[in-house]
Amino acid sequence: LGVTRMTHTEHTPTPWTVGGSAHDWHRIHRKVGEYCGPVVAKCYGTRGERNPDAEHIVRAINSHERLIQALSELVAEHDVSNEDIPMGYGPKPDTFGIELARAALAEGETP
Question: Which of 4, 23, 75, 77 is the most buried (most CB within 10 A)?
């Protein structure tokens, strides 16, 4: 396994996975094939028990790019559908779902 050198603008590549516990913390690793790669973070909890916080972080990180892609496609499809409306009828207003998608995309761009 090679060592990944990161700059200050990159995050550890996904997917991530929750590794075993040691002492009072659970390790979050980069998943490399079937193995746990380098440790990315540690979440404190009880040794030997599952850690909901670590699991939540891993689920959020692993789904982030796909969710951004899905929201971007949804908003783009909505915007394209407005291009077919005859002049004088105005664009369809954003639905609440499209407003949420736009807001989530804007939040996702903020570091």
Answer: 75
